[in-house]
């Protein structure tokens, strides 16, 4: 059995980056106390490659919300076309839509929140389902375009 979880992680980058940091390596602790195990990102990359399709990036997890799917077409913000395991975690190459590039540059959407599939009970991440541009986060994460000045 598996669970689907929206997780918010990311790297502070400027503009709409070609490569985004999706998951840090190791165990990820959420603000609400849940933990997720991303130590085996090679499994996540293999599952993506085996799937043979690009993964959607939407706005505010609309693809995950039943209301969003029922109300009609959910516009994409982009597509994750490639995953890479690096020393600092899992990265994805994103082909952004023009609208998403404009919204990120205007700071309308500051964070990226991946939706992951975990092994039920263990929290081990086995697959990336999608990602979303979001305006707020349930978990600690730096913004896509840089940290706010203090």
Short description:
By secondary structure, the chain is of the alpha+beta class. It has one domain (2-130). Helices cover 16% and strands 38% of the residues.
Key structural traits:
single chain; alpha+beta; 16% helix; globular; disordered C terminus
In the predicted model, the low-confidence regions spanning at least 5 consecutive residues are 145-150
Strand order of the largest sheet: 1-8-9-5-6-7-2
Tally of helical runs = 3
Shape: globular
Question: Span from first to last CA?
Answer: 44 Å
What is the overall pLDDT average? 81
Q: Give me the count of strands.
A: 9
Order of SSEs, N→C? EEEEHEHEEHEE
Work out the helicity level: 10-25%
Please outline the major beta sheet.
7 strands, mixed
Tell me the structural class. Answer: alpha+beta
What portion of residues belong to β-strands? 35-45%
What is this structure's SSE topology?
Blueprint: E1 2-6, E2 19-23, E3 27-29, E4 35-37, H1 41-51, E5 55-59, H2 66-70, E6 78-86, E7 89-96, H3 98-105, E8 111-119, E9 125-134
Parallel strand pairs: 5-9
Antiparallel strand pairs: 1-8, 2-7, 3-4, 5-6, 6-7, 8-9
Could you characterize what this model shows?
- The protein has 150 residues and is α+β, with helices and mostly antiparallel strands.
- The protein has one domain.
- The protein contains 3 helices and 9 strands.
- A 7-stranded mixed beta sheet has the order 1-8-9-5-6-7-2. Strands 3-4 form a two-stranded antiparallel ribbon.
- Residues 145-150 have low confidence and may be disordered.
């Amino acid at each position: 059995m598996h669970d689907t979880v929206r997780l918010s992680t990311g790297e502070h980058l400027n503009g709409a980056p070609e490569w985004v940091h999706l998951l840090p390596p190791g165990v990820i602790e959420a603000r609400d106390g849940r933990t997720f195990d991303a130590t085996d990102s090679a499994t996540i990359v293999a599952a993506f490659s085996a799937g043979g399709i690009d993964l959607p990036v939407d706005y505010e997890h609309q693809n995950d919300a039943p209301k969003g799917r029922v109300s009609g077409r959910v516009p994409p913000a982009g597509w994750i076309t490639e995953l890479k395991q690096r020393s600092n975690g899992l990265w994805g190459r994103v082909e952004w839509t023009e609208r998403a590039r404009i919204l990120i540059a205007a700071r309308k959407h500051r964070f990226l929140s991946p939706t992951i599939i975990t092994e039920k009970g263990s929290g081990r991440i086995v697959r990336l389902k999608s990602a979303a541009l979001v305006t707020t986060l349930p978990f600690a994460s730096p913004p896509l375009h840089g940290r706010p000045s203090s």
